[in-house]
Amino acid sequence: MTNYLLAGGGTAGHVNPLLALADKISDQPGVNSVFALGTKEGLESRLVPQRGYRLLTIARLPFPRRPNRYAMTFLFNFNQAVNQVKAMIVEHKIDVVVGFGGYASAPAYRAALALGIPYVVHEANALPGYANRVGAKRASAVAVAFRNTKLPRAKFVGMPLRQEIANLAKDDLRIEALEYFGLDRHLTTLLVTGGSLGAKRINETIEQSRELLFAAGIQVIHIVGERAGLEDLKSPGYVRLSYCDRMDFAIAAADIALSRAGAATVSEFCAVGLPAIYVPYAVGNGEQAFNLVEVVNAGGAIEVKDDQFDLDYVRTHLIPLASNKRQIEKMARLALSVGSHTGSAELLTLVNGVLPVR
Question: Which domain holds residue 286?
């Protein structure tokens, strides 16, 4: 029996690959136990128990960015979190730790190292986060979702994907998916999403463009995000959802996508060959733009800056591209050429490879 501790959380970009690996572990032969480590505030507090896994929690401890009162107490609180995780590892007889970044990963790496337990780092973004940059230095193995990620001893495994996406037969599911959303099978379908939190610039521009898109024969599935404050709506050629619990149908229905460039979104679209126009999030460390390098260079996607995505861009770029069936079919093939749908299996092989021989 092997006991796995999977650490990460905060955003869907950390939680979804964690859950994908948990499911792959559960599918493998033998008796295995999976524990997740996160915080009470992150998405993991809802998504992990929903999937049937036990969630262990520690305090949410962002790394201090400037000298202040919080920074003065951070080291003490961090060491407390490390000691908590060490106790969890001992209590649950953990054999290996896998971290996906986020607040829970850094204490988990330090605890595993102190106890002599192997740990594996998985970095979802092309531009690594601080916890994984530090953790990778002494990890038993390092896995990355993008080939251009710069971490020591990194092995490309791809992104662990939800099974419904990894196994998606897009063409076979298309008609059923369009019927699910009440859309026309003869029109071009644009999927618009800003990720789990939504995207103000994308939402506002698409709202302004609805009549323009409809007149061009382009129907829209618009996932605005739960924080957007927009009600669900269905009208001819337009479906607006605050949250979509059937992303496999949304992807299968789409001919082309317009999206932020979160690691999971880019990986999912490439894995199934969905061409996209990406509008990377312009705030923070610019990690989303790095996620696009390979697929844009391959010709499977287009990048547009956030401040350039407006009604005029829709009129002069998005509509002509979405109306060019031959071009989007070519982009679909090129996106697929850089995608991977075996990330869960590849990561599990790497993790099992660091387990002590019994």
Answer: 168-338
For 205-259, the pLDDT digits (tens) are 999 999 999 999 999 999 998 777 888 999 999 999 998 989 999 999 999 999 9
CB 197 within 8 A of CB 264: no
Q: Give CA–CA dist 149/179, Å, rounded.
A: 39
Residues 149 and 228 both lie in one domain: no
Note the pLDDT tens digit of each residue in 267-279. Answer: 999 999 999 999 9
CB atoms within 10 A of CB 59: 15
Asked if 129 and 251 sit in the same domain, the reply is no
**Is residue 358 a part of any domain in this protein?**
no
Q: How many CB atoms lie within 10 A of CB 121?
A: 31
Q: Which CATH number covers residue 255?
A: 3.40.50.2000
Say how many CA atoms lie within 13 Å of 294 toward its Cβ.
Answer: 21
Whether 150 and 172 map to the same domain: the answer is: no
Residues 126/149, Cβ–Cβ less than 8 Å: yes
